[in-house]
Fold this sequence. Notes:
Helix content is 69%, strand content 3%. It is mainly α.
Amino acid sequence: MKVRKNCCLLVLFFLFAVGCSSQKDTFTNRLYHNVTARFNAYFLAKEKITEAENNIAKDYKEDYTQVLPVFLPIDSASVDKNEELLEEARELAGKAIDWHRISNWVDDSYYLIGLVDYYEAKTDDAINAFKFLNVNSKDNDIRHKALIQLLRIFIDQREFDDATYVIDYLSKESEISKGNKQALYKTIAYYYEVRNEKNGLIAALEKTLEYTPGQKEKSRLYFILAQLYQKEGFDALAHSYYENALSGNPPYERAFFSQLYAQQVAELEKSKDFRKVRAYYDELYDNRKNIDLRDVVLYEKALFELKQGETPTAINLLHRAAKEDGKNEKQKGHIYKKLAEVYLNQKEDYRSSKYYLDSALQFFNPSDPIFKVLEEEKEVLDKYTLNYELIQKNDSLLVLSKLSPEEQNKIAEDFLEREEIRLLAEAEKKTKKKTSSIFDNLLALGDNNSNNAFYFDNPIAVQQGEIEFFRNWGNRPLADNWRRKSSGFQARPNFTDSPTTEDNESEEEEKSKITSSLPSKESLLANIPNEDAEIVKLNHELESAYLELGKVLFFDLSKPELGKDYLLDLIQKYPQSDKKPEAYYTLYLIEEANNGSPAHYAKKLNSEYPDSPFTKSVNNPVDKTSGTIANKNAAENYSIAYKLYQQNQFTDSRQMIRSTLDNYPLTPVTEKLLLLDIMITGKTEDPEKYQKRLEQYINTTKNQQLTNVARNMLRVLTGEMDKESIAETDSSSMADTVAIKEPKTIQTVELDSLEKKPVYKLNLEQTHIFILVVSPEYVEKSKNVTAELENFHSNSFPNSRLRTGSLNFTRENSIILVSPFSNAEKAIDYRNHFLTDFKSQALTDGIKKSSFVISLENFQQLNKRKDIPEYEAFYKASYQ
């Protein structure tokens, strides 16, 4: 019996050994590899990925003040923290493939590897893995999962054509599992979210809910839908979904916001009992459960007060909200953003708005969509604040420079006295009033006034002591013999014992403790300019600041009257300024925009600056009803650009459009050129940008026919109208309205005869200009070039009275000009010195070598034609 039992064991062992082979495709082999792959390597790999996904989700902080994203954003920092888990998952999935090749879990393991590649941003590898599964897998379920994940990657990359193809392909597939349908509809919702199509997003989320089994996931989807319905004004639906979001034991924060927003759409927004509304917010604020959310409560109450027109109360609430210790840093960003909006739009305090935006940006990540929007807003306010503060500072310094030394001393002393009072007042605010108790009495030996029991516990006494010390001795470090007058304001340098590094550190620490917050009177007086060169510099800065402030207020902040005041100040205070032509031109535009008297400034430009490019712009307005050559050339160029567009030569078409807009900015075809440029955007760029440009065009274009065409394009983009219907309704208008009708006048223009005439003439004795061409974005990096050139002129050409200026020449280029040179020889000599002697970190040798000289007559032609390469060819042939 024993021998028989051993034989059976040997047979079983032999069968097990045979089953371990990954080559033989037998029932025993398949059974073994299926069981081992599924419940060993594949199972563990999937668990590792799930753990990593959960960790990434925990790291992400939901911003409930904004519509929640469909998918949680994948932060690279969070992925890096889980890199070990993901690599373990990759290794285990690889083993499931290598060791169990005949199992049914090979494709599933390939899917896990693709998923790891996706999380680790190895996008190309992930795409290849999912495409491989789609082509080669016989398991429809895993093939559908791969396609859905591939769809998400295409959406991430904004490859909407590929994404649409995948959606269309999956819509025709049969027998998609319930889990895959849930993932598919959720990914389609993501598709609409990225494209900012609210209707499609809501519909896709509703379908996602139908296939979502868990209440936890449903709660989040309900909350997103409630936010969307609330934004669209469907309060009843929003209230219902907020109530549904409370199910499934959601996180406390989501439950809090669900209740808060549910109350808003249910009664707060409609209630006329404002005391009840305010009491509701106060109750939320006092609830100890909401300590970490008090900033949210104050923020929401501030929004309510703003709707009631209680701006001061709202500002106070927002300031209180900013001081609360909230859990979500982005909430602080929204608080400061709202403060910036209030100060910008309601108080028109642009400086305060700029500083609030500075604070807001600190609480958002550069990857957040709102970050770029705030940065663009801040750029304008930065320009305003920089020039406004420069005017305030320089004006004050110039006024002080005209006073006698005695008057300057008196002003400095008065300022220091006011600062002493202010610092003492601030110190008094910091004094903490303590409650009197038995412990206070014991510690203070029966003196209830514990605030004053010890000198260093009394901020007022400390501040007063610092001020008294500063009055008598100035700012001094702690050192031996510090009372000696010879020690001045610094420690003696010739100690016999050299202090160690530790001694230096402790000395600096002590110095920081006793240094007063007050500046010295000597440092204040030292800021007042006394030298002529300093005063000239301050005035030059003021000229630029007045001009820039006027332009910012008119062009960017839509405050023409305020801008006009600053430009008039420039003209009145600096009648000899080289900024006057541009100031006159900007005033001309302001008067024209406000139906004022632009002719007044046109006359001044012609009488005072007849050769200025600004004068040329004013003297050559394009009459919309005239048949000038400009109109005809612009129309002909449009016809060429439209034909290039029809031939799918989008780059050449856009170049023709931009060149025409630069040369002929105001013609009857300007709006058509702009629309054609937008159509090219739709063919070559992101749909979001295309939609945004269409919306802007519809809002600004006065031509009703073109507006209708643009609106139909927008409907096609958003899905409100299909392409076939727009083709039927607008095909003729696109050809006739957008593609200009070619009138007989265009065909009779004698362009050949015009082209035969030489454009530029060589006149070496005429006054010349030196020109440096740079791109607009490079100008931002080289703001100091103009100042550096002026220093260069002072040192190398002190008696030449050279002037430096800059001009936005075309959309592609700006120019820096140096003038005047009485003839070509002097201009060329200047250029040679510029190439060899002028040093600037902002300019590369290539940019310096692209400079050229030009006569005034030829500059007028160049300014008209805007064709720099054309003149450069003439320059090389004639001057070099």
